[in-house]
Design brief:
Elements: H1 8-18, E1 27-29, H2 31-37, E2 41-44, H3 55-64, H4 68-73, E3 75-78, H5 82-94, E4 98-102, H6 108-116, E5 120-123, H7 128-142, E6 145-146, H8 153-169, E7 175-179, H9 184-196, E8 201-207, H10 212-219, H11 246-253, E9 256-260, H12 262-274, H13 282-292, E10 302-305, H14 313-320
Parallel strand pairs: 2-10, 3-4, 3-6, 4-5, 7-8, 7-10, 8-9
Antiparallel strand pairs: 1-2
The structure holds pyridoxal-5'-phosphate (PLP).
Pyridoxal-5'-phosphate is lined by residues 53, 55, 82, 150, 179-186, 234-235, 281, 283-284, 307-308.
Amino acid sequence: MEDALVDISDIEAARRRIAGRVVETPIVPSPSLSDRMGLPVHLKLEHRQTTGAFKLRGASNALALLSADAKARGVVAASTGNHGRALAYAARLEGVRAVICMSRLVPANKVEEIRRLGAEVKIIGNSQDDAQEEVDRLVAEEGLAMIPPFDDPAVIAGQSTLGLELIDQLPDVDTVLVPVSGGGLAAGIAAAVKAKKPSASVIGVSMDRGAAMHASLAAGKPVLVEEAQSLADSLGGGIGLQNRLTFAMCRALLDDLVLLSEEEIAAGIRHLYAEEREIVEGAGSVGVGALLAGKVNPRGVTAIILSGRNIDMELHRRIVCGETTAATGGK
Ligand SMILES: *Cc1c(COP(=O)(O)O)cnc(C)c1O
């Protein structure tokens, strides 16, 4: 393993710091997936986290580490939705001003939820990178503290608490399937799981539309990809050409990174609803989609991270009824 960029003492400190601000989510066996795969498959129900996604872990840890001065000025972030939502929630809890910048591709339900949580929302351009430019301006001109969605040691340490929780709940886990976009979740989980159980495999799953981390790992350096609409909208966005941490961590720690089509993502959403009775968004369903599609060959006790549930319910209904496109999915 390369130098630990986020080590086990950072992870354990983060867990103590955010205890009481996040919930410990359940892990449950999946009889239907276990039967189908012929090995024990467990589902980590992180979509039941407060705000509907794991991102509250990283946002809470990063916010808690700010100085009193920085908290008085406020925080800002670019977000495809769930990070903004988490930061808005965490900031309101501490009475801190939050400004959330996002691109026009973000679904309306996510924008509304962030406004409802009391944050100021700025809609900028057609990509995460456009939104990031506005963030940089607010940092320079108004002195707000940027809380990045993934490429930050405090955020990664926060997400890694999910891995620590998982290994406590399921100490004999051999394979973990985790959704990948910017790679903060996967890097964090892999750092925690492999610190506790080095023999475990951590396999990332992305959508095949604009998979920035996959393209970057193949190129050997961070590269730009064109963003496209996907059922896994929370997996949209680049990893940043100046990526500091998650690219190196994913390269060192992930055993594989597989890609899913829209139809395979939809099959994951449908399975989770029909067989497991869980409502999970596209990004949160890719681990199940990867198993069902035969894209991964898990070994031993397998855990799948269900990372979020913030899907437009009208879109969810249409997917469950057989549709597979996100193009008509916005409200
Ligand atoms: C952000 C997000 C991801 C991906 O996390 P990264 O740290 O960007 O890789 C996966 N699932 C959901 C629900 C998310 O909100």
